[in-house]
Amino acid sequence: MITANEYLNKIKWDKREKPDEYALEYLDFGRLVPIKYTDIKRIDEGFMAIDKNGKETMIPLHRIKIIKKQGDIVWQRK
């Protein structure tokens, strides 16, 4: 199974993929928070930067639990 980081990079670099079709859910204080893939500003070593209420927020990649394409789960952390 590929990692969340590898899957996110596949979405970004594979020309066959359409990033606006993807969403993900990450764990934040015991609840899953949904975001669109297009809300990700950048992916750094072990983190993704998102714009949250006009402020850049760094989310550790290990907190990503689900990646969805058009509403269907295509990757899930066990």
What does the model show?
By secondary structure, the protein is mainly beta. It has one domain: SH3 type barrels (Roll), CATH 2.30.30. It is 13% helix and 53% strand. The strands form two sheets. The protein has a four-stranded antiparallel sheet with strand order 2-1-6-7, with helices on one face. The protein has a three-stranded antiparallel sheet with strand order 3-4-5, with helices on one face. The termini are close together.
Compact description:
The chain has 78 residues and is mainly beta.
- Helix percent reads 10-25%
Gyration radius over CA: 12 Å
Q: State the helix count.
A: 1
User: Can you count the beta strands?
Assistant: 7
Number of domains: 1
What characteristics describe this protein?
78 residues; mainly beta; SH3 type barrels; 1 helix; 13% helix; 53% strand
How are the SSEs ordered, and which strands pair?
Blueprint: H1 4-13, E1 22-28, E2 31-36, E3 40-44, E4 47-52, E5 55-60, E6 64-69, E7 72-76
Antiparallel strand pairs: 1-2, 1-6, 3-4, 4-5, 6-7
